[in-house]
């Protein structure tokens, strides 16, 4: 890894190293968000069905204990609801916790979008610095030594290509995660409403 960074620095300059760091950050965020937004951590079907059954059977203490052991988004919403089951502002607690869970689902996705935006800009910056280096060498050594001209053009091209190579998959990953979170958010909102209605109906009975 260290040798690769040295090679990238020598051939494309410090801008290429910055783009490489962006690529690592982008991949790490994408994989982490894929893992963290699985159904297991958002709305596990088996747990949720058991939870509704317990609430419908008026076993709220058991439902609360089970929800505290589960680490999913719907479980956290259930804990907020069941711990304030006798509070007249029950709906507000559910709504607030739901917002917290949605924010957790969206965490760091904006950074992926930022990487997709700045990577080609870094590539453009590398193009400019490469051309500056080339003309600087021409001014010092004259146009006779083509090696320095080639080195500047190489830096310009490699940084542009690197920026685009990072930006395109980062943007695709960003849009995919946005779509994925939107679907899970909609489902979470629907099931939170269903959970709220189950709790309210049990209170009335």
Structure report:
It is a single chain. The chain is mainly alpha-helical. The protein has one domain. The chain has helices spanning 2-12, 14-36, 39-42, 45-56, 60-69, 73-82, 90-105, 109-141, 146-204. The chain starts with a helix and ends with a helix.
Detail the topology: elements first, then pairings.
Layout: H1 2-12, H2 14-36, H3 39-42, H4 45-56, H5 60-69, H6 73-82, H7 90-105, H8 109-141, H9 146-204
Helix pairs in contact: 1-2, 2-8, 2-9, 4-5, 5-6, 6-7, 6-9, 7-9, 8-9
Give a quick precis of the structure.
The protein has 205 residues and is an all-alpha fold.
Strand content: under 5%
| Low-confidence blocks of residues | none
Overall geometry comes to: rod-shaped
The secondary-structure class comes to: mainly alpha
As a whole number of angstroms, the C-alpha radius of gyration is 26 Å
Largest sheet: none
How many beta-strand segments?
Answer: 0
In total, the number of domains comes to 1
Helix content: over 70%
Q: What are the secondary-structure elements, in order, as H or E?
A: HHHHHHHHH
Determine the mean pLDDT.
85
| Count of DSSP H/I helices | 9
- Tell me the distance between the termini: 65 Å
